[in-house]
Amino acid sequence: MILVTGGAGFIGANFVLDWLRQSDEAVLNVDKLTYAGNLGTLRSLADDSKHVFTRVDICDGEALRALFAKHQPRAVVHFAAESHVDRSIHGPAEFVQTNVVGTFTLLEAARNYWAGLDQAGKDAFRFLHVSTDEVFGSLSAEDPQFSETTPYAPNSPYSATKAGSDHLVRAYHHTYGLPTLTTNCSNNYGPYQFPEKLIPLMIANALAGKPLPVYGDGQNVRDWLYVGDHCSAIREVLARGKPGETYNIGGWNEKKNLDVVHTLCDLLDAARPKADGSYRDQITYVKDRPGHDRRYAIDASKLERELGWKPAETFETGLAKTVRWYLDHAQWVEEVQSGEYRNWVELNYAGRA
Ligand code: NAD
Ligand code: DAU
Fold first, then answer.
1. What is the CATH number for 81?
2. Number of domains composing the chain
């Protein structure tokens, strides 16, 4: 089986669902179930014996060692993290704990288990670390896209802790020979994304008749990738990536935030017209994110050249699918908009008016 961490979160759950649709290999899903973890997303797997869920914190080394010993995974795919930049600004400690200490603890448990395998088991084992393009910092409009050799320059507590975890993974390969793989991906969107991130937040607010809060001038650029394409890239890297290597994953879809919000409003205007006017009328400019990175852009040509991977979705097809999914799954959104979610909205947006 494979061991997946963070498999109840947005990308992890999409990965687990896709994996079990395409493979007979079982998944051990290790997740602490923070505010971002949601077993409701995995409801369709309730009767699937190939999905084994366990609520464990990746900072708990003893529990991890027991899981490795019991389940003998052939690979680890490590998604678990604190993932939201704005939350890292309000409370960085949790990010250091999970992203740095948690990754270190997981690496130690994996190394300990791997060291006890026979040579064939050692050679076949993989530790795939899922990371982000934010570790490379911020680009100007003229800069070339991030490549695998762009120097690290993280600017937020989130990206700094992800950078720290990437360095640990690199060190475990170089020092101990652990067969690691690291992927650095751009902004994901799609089904089951927690409505604290730009695209699901804008859809949820639009439908609820609330303001659509655009930070700063709305001209920051992100490179968007449909989550199913991220999952297919991870499967490729896991199957055929070279241990010790890093791979950039991106959608070749650079968009300004305001353009993303306009497109979402237009899709909603067509699918669920308002009695009066357009969803664009709800757009509100709010105080900028401190240290807001201006532009991210990924050069994913290494992945295409070496492993033949390309995204299947364009931004237009992926966004249309995503809007449809949120319209059809209002109950999922309602369920995650718990008391904790409302507290977050109050904390993050109250001071921005
Ligand atoms: P998410 O916040 O939706 O999910 C994170 C999951 O990790 C949750 O299920 C949570 O319960 C779990 N978790 C958190 N702390 C844990 C701990 N200490 N022990 C065990 N489980 C814990 O995140 P996401 O958007 O799905 O991102 C997944 C990974 O992909 C992260 O490592 C993130 O840095 C990376 N990434 C995300 C994006 C993106 O656009 N969302 C892009 C590139 C890379
Ligand atoms: O680039 C990959 C990263 O993408 C991942 O590593 C992170 O886990 C993921 O959260 C994401 O980070 P961003 O900060 O880019 O995503 P977010 O959805 O929070 O914001 C996208 C852009 O939209 C960013 O420029 C800030 C802006 N924004 C966001 C929110 C929540 C707004 O203008 N208004 C908002 O309310």
1. 3.40.50.720
2. 1
**144 and 299 Cβ atoms separated by less than 8 Å:** yes
Which range marks the domain in which residue 136 is found?
A: 2-190+226-254+295-313
User: Residue 197: CB within 6 Å of ligand 2?
Assistant: yes
Determine the atom of ligand 2 nearest the C-alpha atom of 188: 4
- Secondary structure letter of residue 144 according to DSSP: P
Contacts of 227 (CB under 8 A, 6+ apart): 10, 11, 14, 188, 189, 190, 191, 192, 193
Do the domain assignments include residue 221?
no
pTM metric for this prediction: 0.98
pLDDT digits (tens, 9 = 90+) for 66-112: 999 999 999 999 999 999 999 999 999 999 999 999 999 999 999 99
Give the separation between CA 123 and CA 329, rounded to whole angstroms: 43
* Residue 328 resides in a domain: no
Query: Is the beta carbon of 137 within 6 A of some atom in ligand 2?
Result: no
pLDDT digits (tens, 9 = 90+) for 172-192: 999 999 999 999 999 999 999
**Nearest CA among 130, 327, 329, 345 for reference residue 227:** 130
Q: Which two tokens stand for residue 345?
A: 């909205």
As a whole number of angstroms, the distance between CA 305 and CA 282 comes to 43
